[in-house]
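Hey, can you fold this one?
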Amino acid sequence: MATQEDTDSRYARSEDIKAILAMKTIAIVGLSPDPFRASQVVALYMQRHGYRVIPVNPYCDFVLNEKVYPNLESIHFPVEVVDIFRRSRDAGAAVDDAIRKGAKAVWLQEGVIDEVAAERARRAGLLVVMDRCILKEHAFHAEQPDITRT
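Sure. Predicted structure:
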């Protein structure tokens, strides 16, 4: 059985992951219309597990039966989590957009690392997970018993 120490790292803390997974509205920046791309696989998984997925991509109109927004600013309702599927060099701009949007958390997908942007988000009060896959973390945490419940 995995322990909290197994899931903690300098890029993600177990309690932050659990808190983010409890949030149900996720804007996915860089969600591809290609069903074979990781971003769409993750989005479909999250939809099937009860999350509202808001696609963000300036180059398409609909993905997974959802209206696609060209950017976070154009979404006129609250977004809890901004999940970033962008290259590391482009992640900082998406993090800054998430801060301006008033998101509660940013999640930089596996392979996406921008420590400076992550620190900006933390200073702005957002929870941050970086270099982790939200699908894998959801699957992992869904299988772990919550030993704090009595």
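The CA atoms of residues 26 and 81 lie 5 Å apart. Let me know if you want another pass with a different chain boundary.
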